[in-house]
TrEMBL record:
This is 5-deoxy-glucuronate isomerase. GO terms for molecular function: 5-deoxy-D-glucuronate isomerase activity; glucuronate isomerase activity. It is an enzyme of class 5 (isomerase). GO terms for biological process: inositol catabolic process. Its EC number is 5.3.1.30. InterPro entries: Deoxy-glucuronate_isom_IolB, KduI/IolB_isomerase, RmlC-like_jellyroll, RmlC_Cupin_sf. The keyword DNA-binding does not apply. It comes from the Bacteria. Keywords: Isomerase. It comes from Phyllobacterium trifolii. Pfam families: KduI.
Length: 265
């Protein structure tokens, strides 16, 4: 099995765990907690900033002793937009599940930006459609670069069954602005129906890295560098939650030259 693929674990509990030490990189962390109704989870951001994303379910949230109320309303990641909470470095947080909950903890270095805790409501999230034909996918921007944060970029994407995504193949592994930015990235994958599967390839131009993976519901893929296209098999829609971070908080990607002709189609 590829070292870039973390297979889904059964919940409830702490079912996915990516740190810079585990991934062999510098910036991105990702954790996924599945809670049954009545269960709770808590954490400290320490020297990182965090974006809590309610992938599914409803829960009461407390941050730095402040009651943020009951957040979350969708019971499937394939419905609507998520509720999220931004937490700066040095924060404590606690989530108590009112229903079954999947809560993603997206993290990256805090840079002393002095930003406050804030609720990111669905009403404020922009959406866009990317691609054409069988390369069409639907994007919800949770923490894009035009919204305040120190390092984090967070986005979710729904790709219909039979479609490709993160395609034409692109990469962002060079700190070479304005042409390209260096961003590490994780993908948290879900399928509808849940028995579905798809494929993701992570590869570099010289093929020193070239990993092709079958992805299933709940899998996490780490992208340290290179191109990273996905494909959803016919009949099974693919959702993924992306977390990106690097030395500069901007998404500037480079398309694979041999496939760039597809952009014009």
């Amino acid at each position: 099995m590829s070292k870039l693929l973390l297979k889904a674990m059964q919940g409830p509990g702490h079912v996915a765990h990516v740190t810079p030490e585990i991934a062999g990189w510098t910036y991105v962390g990702f954790d996924l907690h599945k809670l049954d109704a009545g269960q709770s989870v808590c954490g400290k951001t320490e020297d990182k900033e965090v974006c809590l994303v309610f992938v599914t379910g409803k829960g009461k949230v407390t941050a730095n002793g402040e009651d943020l109320g009951l957040l979350g309303d969708r019971m499937s990641p394939f419905e609507g937009k998520p509720w999220s909470v931004y937490l700066p470095e040095g924060s404590d947080w606690w989530v108590s599940a009112e229903t079954d909950v999947e809560i993603a903890v997206c993290s990256a270095p805090g840079l002393g930006g002095g930003l406050p805790v804030r609720i990111i409501s669905p009403e404020g999230l922009s959406q866009e459609t990317r691609g054409k034909g069988t390369n069409t996918r639907y994007v919800t921007n949770i923490l894009p670069e035009n919204e305040p944060a120190d390092s984090l970029l967070v986005v979710e994407v729904i790709t219909p069954g039979g479609h490709t995504s993160s395609y034409p193949p692109h990469k962002h592994d060079q700190d070479n602005l304005p042409a390209e930015s260096y961003l590490e990235e994780t993908y948290y994958h879900r399928f509808n129906p849940r028995q579905g599967f798809g494929f993701q390839r992570v590869y570099t131009d010289d093929r020193a890295l070239d990993e092709a993976m079958a992805i299933e519901d709940g899998d996490v893929v780490m992208v340290p560098k290179g191109y990273h296209p996905c494909a959803a098999c016919h009949g099974y829609d693919l959702y993924y939650l992306n977390v990106m971070a690097g030395p500069k908080r901007t998404w500037k990607f480079h398309n694979a030259v041999e496939h760039e002709w597809l952009v014009a189609k």
